[in-house]
Specification:
By secondary structure, this protein is an alpha/beta fold. Helix content is 27%, strand content 22%. It binds pyridoxal-5'-phosphate (PLP). The site of pyridoxal-5'-phosphate has 11 residues, from loops.
């Protein structure tokens, strides 16, 4: 391998594990089916990599956040539905039509705009309708929804999915989750009573599908099961049941080469701002990866606060001091003499260092670790 190539960190994406994770969630949502959330470049994996793998596994309903992501997803997906979670981008109606995308509508003005557009362009996709059951972020409030329904003004012909989103489904026995599920169930019943057949099962020809669960919802009894679920994080190997064993297969592995090994005498310091102080004669391995690669600077260590870890020669080694833009220094003093050499790869995500643990070490969540994965990595795919 050339010296140039050896300086790049290596991101290995297991597309077989991604497919297996989707199949698992799809089975958990039976008799409904699972969709897939591929927003934020498929949580950092790359839409072009993840979407076809999910499609091949059987997924036919995809969610992105932005119209631009939808356009990229459509280029990677010949068929299947693509919904744009952040709604109708102003002035972009024609693009939804051109790329066969559907918006997720959350306000009256969006609903009216899409209805008017479909009157002119009946071939445009039917939208999803977002009802806000507690996030207070996106979607119609339940009272507005009830009013619209009671007035007989819901444009059902333009809507194929009615959905809501959980606030904290990852918390075991969460009462908020149960309350949201109850509200959603009540609204679904109202729709049914209003004479609209609600499709509880996939593959039926009935017109409206209900969608509630995110990743964690699949593992929460009180979340309820509906026609379509919308997992994201768990697809990519994140633990949807924090505090319990991760039921998902890991998808992402990040490794970076050791590019120098430096003896540091006791009393000297390492890195910017001297945040590592050698308490004994130490050995520091410098790894070619840093915050410019998306590895969080918050995973650095201070004298009074541990940071993240790297696995070097099979053993966990603490990060020494600050994470730099392009480099991470790791304390390998405790490793057997001669067990590491320049060019060896250190593991930053993988094995015992799963994305949830890496997130915790960086004082954030695994979601942010994934969505920050850098562009400078050499990406390797395995099935
Ligand atoms: C991001 C998102 C999801 C996926 O959530 P995960 O926790 O990643 O499974 C589902 N629905 C909506 C509306 C979202 O914004």
């Amino acid at each position: 391998m050339s010296r140039l190539a050896s300086q790049a960190a290596r991101l290995t994406l297991d597309l077989g594990a991604l497919a297996a994770n989707w199949c698992k969630l799809n089975a958990l949502n039976a008799p409904g089916v699972a969709g897939a959330v591929i927003k934020a470049d498929a949580y950092g994996l790359g839409i072009e990599n993840a979407a076809p793998a999910l499609h091949k596994a059987g997924c036919r309903t995809f969610f992105v956040a932005h119209l631009s992501e939808g356009i990229r997803a459509r280029a990677a997906l010949p068929d299947g539905e693509i919904f744009v979670l952040n709604g109708l981008a102003a002035g972009q109606l024609a693009a939804y039509r051109a790329h066969r995308l559907a918006p997720v509508l959350g306000t009256m003005s969006e609903i009216t705009a899409w209805q008017a557009f479909r009157d002119e362009e009946p071939e445009a996709e039917r939208a999803a309708l977002h009802v806000d059951t507690g996030m207070n972020r996106l979607g119609l409030r339940p009272d507005a929804f009830r009013d619209l329904l009671a007035a007989g003004e819901m444009p059902w012909d333009d809507i194929s999915i009615m959905m809501s989103h959980f606030v904290s489904a990852e918390v075991e026995n969460d009462t908020f989750t149960a309350r949201q599920a109850t509200v959603f169930g009540e609204l679904a019943t109202l729709v049914q009573e209003a004479g609209k057949a609600v499709q509880q099962l996939a593959n039926s020809n009935q017109p409206l599908r209900l969608s509630l669960c995110n990743s964690s919802g699949h593992f929460t009894e009180s979340a309820g099961r509906y026609a379509l679920s919308r997992p994201g994080y768990a697809l990519y190997g994140g633990n949807p049941t924090p505090g319990r064993k991760n039921p998902m297969r890991s998808v992402v592995r990040l490794e970076a080469p050791v590019i120098q090994i430096t003896p540091v005498p006791a009393g000297e310091t390492v890195g910017y701002n001297s945040n590592f102080i050698a308490m004994r004669d130490s050995l520091i391995a410098t790894i070619s990866c840093g915050y410019a690669d998306g590895y969080s600077r918050n995973a650095g260590a201070k004298p009074d606060r541990a940071g993240g870890y790297a696995i070097v020669a099979g053993r966990e080694c603490p990060i020494a001091g600050n994470v730099s833009m392009d480099l991470i220094t790791v304390d390998i003093t405790h490793l057997p003499k001669g067990s590491v050499k320049v060019g060896d790869f250190a593991t930053l995500i993988g094995d015992g260092l799963d994305i949830d643990r890496v997130g915790e070490a960086a004082k954030t969540i695994g979601y942010e670790i994934l969505t920050s994965l850098g562009r400078r990595y050499e990406r390797v795919f395995v099935e």
